[in-house]
């Protein structure tokens, strides 16, 4: 993997020599593409009942279908990302919105972010306690405020000024997450011991207008305190979108994703490797997909080397939808205008 960048640069030079501009000028239907995640972790078949397995797949497929419908109808990548995340936030199986993990003080503090690849507009909220769908608030911050990130009470005040749905903090409670907190406290375990999976949710999309978007939403990590904020609301760590390179949403041990700057690092590598200069021939398109996968894997290797784990979803400007994770499994799904439509959980599928 380490020699990858040299190899890719050589491949890029080769591509520019071999593919004359005249060969690029083929008319094509505009592509759309979407990838989603519901968290990564030590998710193993033997720990999952058939009912649970089926229920997770049904939730992922329903969210994927919601995003896909927006894109098939010619809608915007941002709306597709929002549609997916709102559904997963409302689904108690995932650690975002309803079903969010408990803090040390037995409350919930939610983080979310969204980014528009057209102009790199972005919005994020951190540590909000009573907003039903934090992704909607993140989008409002992007569109209706001069800021990128709002936190805590101020963010809630902004939310009520903009008519966002408010719920009591208990609305996010689930017995399953409460038991995780009890184990953290009783056995002095870390969140990583009880949260065998990170349940953060995210989506990345390319629309038929050629625009990319990314979004991520989470309850963070069980037993968090002192106002801890993870990578999900940090633009460049958990979320990034730039039409010139790619869109990324992450899940995992947030501190490592912040230190590595995972989402932006993947996009930046893609951009500096010249993806924008490739032509639209199928061969070059495939080359870009291989490059994107290698870049994402290299950055995830880096996270692992520091001791962190998790995964990312990536969509490229020419419609590749891919995953990279260094955990046993990741709740995930992808669909494209080329006919891809899949949801998956374990690492071997
Ligand atoms: N990345 C999230 C955080 O550190 C956790 C997760 O992915 O579930 O807050």
UniProtKB/TrEMBL annotation:
Signal peptide (from-to): 1-25
SUPFAM superfamilies the UniProt entry points to: N-terminal nucleophile aminohydrolases (Ntn hydrolases) (SSF56235)
Pfam families reported for this sequence: Asparaginase_2 (PF01112)
CDD domains referenced in this protein's UniProt entry, alphabetically: Asparaginase_2 (cd04701)
Matches recorded under InterPro entries: Ntn_hydrolases_N (IPR029055), Peptidase_T2 (IPR000246)
Alphabetical UniProt keywords: Signal
Keyword Signal among UniProt keywords: yes
Protein name: Isoaspartyl peptidase/L-asparaginase
Classification of source organism: Bacteria, Pseudomonadati, Pseudomonadota, Alphaproteobacteria, Sphingomonadales
């Amino acid at each position: 993997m380490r020699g990858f960048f040299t190899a890719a640069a050589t491949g890029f030079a080769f591509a520019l020599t071999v593919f004359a501009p005249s060969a690029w000028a083929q008319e094509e239907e505009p592509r759309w593409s979407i990838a989603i995640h519901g968290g990564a972790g030590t998710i193993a078949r033997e720990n999952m009942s058939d009912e649970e397995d089926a229920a997770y797949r049904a939730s992922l497929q329903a969210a994927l279908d919601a995003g896909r419908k927006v894109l098939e109808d010619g809608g915007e990548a941002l709306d597709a990302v929002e549609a997916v995340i709102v559904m997963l936030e409302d689904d108690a199986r995932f650690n975002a919105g309803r079903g969010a993990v408990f803090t040390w003080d037995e409350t919930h503090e939610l983080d979310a972010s969204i980014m528009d690849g057209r102009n790199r507009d972005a919005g994020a909220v951190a540590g909000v306690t009573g907003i039903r769908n934090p992704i909607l608030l993140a989008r409002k911050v992007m569109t209706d405020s001069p800021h990128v990130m709002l936190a805590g009470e101020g963010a809630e005040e902004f939310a009520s000024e903009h008519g966002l749905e408010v719920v009591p903090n208990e609305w996010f409670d689930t017995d399953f997450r409460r038991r995780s907190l009890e184990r953290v406290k009783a056995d002095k375990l870390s969140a990583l011991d009880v949260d065998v999976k990170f349940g953060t949710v995210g989506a990345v999309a390319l629309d038929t207008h050629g625009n990319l978007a990314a979004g991520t939403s989470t309850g963070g990590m069980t037993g968090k305190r002192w106002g801890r904020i993870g990578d999900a609301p940090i633009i460049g760590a958990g979320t990034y979108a730039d039409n010139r390179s790619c869109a990324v949403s992450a899940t995992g041990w947030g501190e490592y994703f912040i230190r590595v700057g995972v989402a932006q690092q993947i996009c930046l590598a893609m951009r500096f490797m010249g993806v924008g200069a490739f032509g639209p021939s199928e061969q070059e398109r495939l080359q870009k997909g291989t490059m994107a996968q290698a870049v994402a894997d290299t950055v995830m290797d880096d996270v692992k080397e520091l001791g962190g784990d998790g995964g990312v979803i990536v969509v490229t400007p020419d419609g590749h939808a891919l995953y990279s994770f260094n955990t046993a499994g990741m709740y995930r799904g992808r669909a494209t205008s080329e006919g891809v439509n899949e949801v998956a959980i374990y690492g071997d599928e």
